[in-house]
Design a protein that fits this description.
The chain folds into 2 domains: 255 residues, Aldolase class I (TIM Barrel); 74 residues, no CATH class. Helix content is 41%, strand content 16%. It contains 15 helices and 11 strands. Strands 3-4-6-7-8-9-10-11 form an 8-stranded parallel barrel, surrounded by 6 helices. The chain has a two-stranded antiparallel ribbon with strand order 1-2. Strand 6, helix 4 and strand 7 form a beta-alpha-beta unit. Helix 4 packs parallel to helix 6 and helix 14 runs antiparallel to helix 15. The chain is globular and about 60 Å long.
Length: 341
């Protein structure tokens, strides 16, 4: 057990990695994670990537604070200096995070200029040194998120060598985005769509390293796909689908042998409004509500509901007042759609 920030937490069991929500810049902040935790109790949540420079020279509470309800929650770090990563991992452990994850998958040019992210895959021994430094410094698990290759190198040997080298430093769990990362010529968005998905590469890694844990990421959107991947792999990480259609997560506790959540969308929205009201002194409801705009995805009246919650002209109102307007707009639109013919 670790004593941190006035609370006691358990070291993470790798079973929590059966399902996880991907770290997503500008999206998976503490408010987003609180919202997701209202829907699923067991799914592992990740922070946005936080650079070592931000932690060692910035505002620690702004980068590291989170609500105790978010557990289990992992801190993703961006960096390539073993000493700096070790110091940052210590901060993450002291703050109460359940896992430290090293980003070796982000292809953005800004991240490359910092000499970390996907370009680190070309330096597996450096990544191993980083992992060892962090493992020596903390008790919580150290994991690595990476791609299956960089640029047009589609050789399996490349990712096999990367995993083999890094695992010797003590990394036992690898989260694999089953696409290459093109370091030049594609935007981060294009890098999530254009390089082809090759999930068979992740399956081969599991066969070649059966003693290691592998979580697959990339292009997974349905309950059926999750079930399929969990037959052969140790976990599934979902990114944008979980963000844009978050209510899909209400069944995910079933993958942990527990009943699916019985909460309705209405209940979750009510709880988020309570959270917005509670946090009103330091975070405006508008910056929190953006994360729940997909709650009514594909439901009658969802578009009208989203329009109210995302209307910046209503920022002077309270979250409770806006909720009343949004609910009224949704119910009116639903009534109109059912009586249109």
């Amino acid at each position: 057990m670790l004593k941190t920030q006035g609370s006691t937490i358990k070291t993470l069991n790798y079973g929590h990695s059966r399902l996880s929500v991907a770290p997503m810049m500008d999206w998976t902040d503490r408010h987003c994670r609180y919202f997701h935790r209202l829907i699923t109790k067991n799914t592992l949540l990740y922070t946005e990537m936080v650079t070592t420079g931000a932690l060692l020279h910035g505002n620690l509470p702004r980068h590291l604070d989170f609500d105790a309800a978010e557990h289990p929650v992992a801190l993703q770090l961006g960096g390539s200096e073993p000493h700096d990563l070790a110091k940052s991992a210590v901060l993450g452990e002291q703050w109460g995070y359940n896992e430290i994850n090293l980003n070796c998958g982000c292809p953005s040019e800004r991240v490359q200029r910092g000499a970390f992210g996907a370009c680190l895959m070309a330096e597996p021994q450096l990544v191993a040194d980083c992992v060892k430094a962090m493992r020596d410094a903390v008790q919580i698990p150290i994991t690595v998120k990476h791609r299956i290759g960089i640029d047009q190198n589609e050789s399996y040997n490349f990712v096999q060598d990367f995993v083999g080298t890094v695992s010797l430093a003590g990394c036992n769990l690898f989260i694999v985005h089953a696409r290459n990362a093109w370091l030049k010529g594609l935007s981060p968005k294009e890098n999530r769509e254009i390089p082809p998905l090759r999930p068979e590469m992740v399956l081969q890694l599991k066969k070649d390293f059966p003693h290691l844990q592998f979580v697959i990421n990339g292009g997974i959107t349905t309950h059926e796909q999750i079930t399929h991947h969990l037959k052969d792999l140790d976990g599934v990480m979902i990114g944008r689908e979980a963000y844009h259609n978050p209510f899909i997560m209400h069944t995910w506790d079933g993958f942990y042998g527990e009943p699916a959540s019985q909460k309705t969308r209405e209940t979750i929205e009510d709880q988020m409004v309570m959270y917005m009201t509670h946090n009103a002194s330091h975070s405006h409801w508008y910056s929190i509500a953006r994360h729940m705009l997909g709650l009514w995805h594909a439901q009658p009246g969802a578009r009208k509901w989203r329009q109210v919650w995302s209307n910046h002209q209503l920022k002077h109102l309270s979250a409770i007042e806006v909720q009343k307007m949004a609910t009224g707009a949704r119910q009116s639109a639903r009534f109109e759609s059912t009586h249109a013919h």
